[in-house]
Amino acid sequence: MAKALEYNTERPYLVNREFGRNVQKLAEFITTLPDPETRLRNAEALIRIMQILVPSSKEDDNYLQKLWDHLHMIAHFELDVQSPFPKPDPAKPKPKCVKPSYPRRQMRYGQYGNLIERLIDYAASLPEGPERDYLTELAANFMKKSYLTWNKDTINDDMIKVQLEQLSNGRLQLRDDHRLSSTRELLLQTRNQPDHDSSELFPPKKKKKKKKRR
Fold first, then answer.
1. How far apart are CA 55 and CA 49, in angstroms?
2. Which of 75, 113, 149, 206 could disulfide-link 27, Cβ–Cβ 3.0 to 4.6 Å?
3. What is the domain count for the chain?
4. Are 57 and 49 in contact (CB under 8 A)?
5. Helix, strand or coil for residue 23?
6. What is d(CA 117, CA 163) in angstroms, rounded to the nearest whole number?
7. Read out DSSP for 84-108?
């Protein structure tokens, strides 16, 4: 007789979705093993599986302790093994995720983004001098490059100069003799680099000459 389908709504609560239900089933199975040494060996094997499933956890500090803590939580704190780290307290509240703060300022020109506007504000706060002039020219070229990302048509440099003055509230102005980077140069910078010739890395093997039988 065919086995009845098992729906997620009928399954037990999934403690940690990052590791999946199979890891939870294995953790629950390990808690039922009677031999302590067998439980420890299987728990260590499951930790290695968790490392493979989430390799990015190796970048965290004390990642092994975090994996053991996750294993105890997945096993509903019923795993009785001599782990290398202390067992977490189930009564301790879980840390809440901190919601990242996003910039709430209204952008005048969405194609330039907040970073360019912040660069313009910083350049405008500097005193007159070479650094201020350099950042002003850099911001103008960034504006032109960002504009070309969304519009491949030829752009008028005078429009960039006008919008730079608007974003800086009249505090930044380019010199009359200053010329922005050409459209062709900026498009070449954003274009993907050509693929390397694979023959340089993997030269073709030389065919062995067959000796003619006399």
1. 10
2. 75
3. 2
4. no
5. helix
6. 11
7. SSPPPPTTSPPPPPPPPP---PPPS
Angle at 111 between CA 105 and CA 113, to 5 degrees: 40
Residue 205 belongs to some domain of the structure = no
Rg (CA), the chain: 31
Within this chain, do residues 120 and 61 fall inside the same structural domain, yes or no? no
Tell me how many degrees the CA angle 63-21-3 measures, rounded to the nearest 5: 160
Domain with 166 in it: 113-189
pLDDT tens profile 94-109: 777 788 777 677 778 8
Residue 139 lies in a domain: yes
Residue 84 lies in a domain: no
- C-beta pairs of 163-169 under 8 Å, 24+ apart in sequence: 163/109, 164/120, 164/136, 164/139, 164/140, 166/108, 167/108, 167/109, 167/112, 167/116, 167/117, 167/120, 168/120, 168/121, 168/123, 168/124, 169/124
- For the chain, give the number of residues: 214
Query: pLDDT for 146-189, tens place per residue?
Result: 888 777 666 788 888 889 999 999 899 887 777 887 877 777 76
Separation of alpha carbons 204 and 202, rounded Å: 6
Residues 121 and 185 occupy one common structural domain:
yes
